[in-house]
Amino acid sequence: MSLHESLPIEARFSYDHTQPLEVRVEFLNDIGGAVTWVLSRDLLMTGLHRPSGDGDVRIWPPCRRHGGDTLWILLQGRTGAALLEGLVAPLDAWLEETLRSVPSGTEGLSMDWDEAFAHVLAQGDG
After folding, report:
1. Cβ of 63: how many Cβ atoms within 10 Å?
2. What is the DSSP letter of 16?
3. Is the four-CA dihedral 38, 41, 43, 47 of positive or negative sign?
4. What are the tens digits of pLDDT across the range 80-107?
5. What is the pTM of this model?
6. Using CB atoms within 10 A of its CB, is residue 70 exposed (0-12), middle (13-18) or buried (19+)?
7. Separation CA 52–CA 123 (nearest Å)
8. Are strands 34-40 and 22-28 parallel, antiparallel or unpaired?
9. Which of 10, 56, 66, 94 has minimal CB crowding within 10 Å?
10. How far is CA 110 from CA 55, 88, 100, 124, in A?
């Protein structure tokens, strides 16, 4: 396999209104393996319109000037990187569904703050 090989990959996006800032993306391969990344919903929404992200996740929107309809997502981990290309229309429609569930700006009202603080405090005990 080449370092620059292009392969189709299935991605499943999921959203839980109790974790309103997060989008989980499960990437599946053809032999039953999966890798899950947790992305910011705001990052994905911004990436539909302008370059966004810093560090492990970066997103580039389609080139509207040239009639593009795909965006690019770069995921960088400790052992490698993947550059993913996906259609904008289905992602945009899916993100609109999440906004109907939890409108932008109201995420804090949907969070279980006691659980969030307990999780942060538990990480400090290790």
Report:
1. 11
2. -
3. positive
4. 888 999 999 999 999 999 999 998 877 7
5. 0.77
6. middle
7. 28
8. antiparallel
9. 66
10. 27, 27, 13, 25
Backbone angles phi, psi at 71, to 5 degrees: -115, 165
Helix (H, G, I), strand (E, B) or coil at 53: strand
Fill in the amino acid letter for 28.
Answer: L
- Cα–Cα distance between 65 and 5 in angstroms, integer? 27
Residue closest to 35 by CA, chosen among 10, 56, 59: 10
pLDDT (mean) for 20-49: 91
Rounded-to-integer distance, Cα 91 and Cα 20, Å: 17
Tokens representing residue 43 in the block: 């990052």
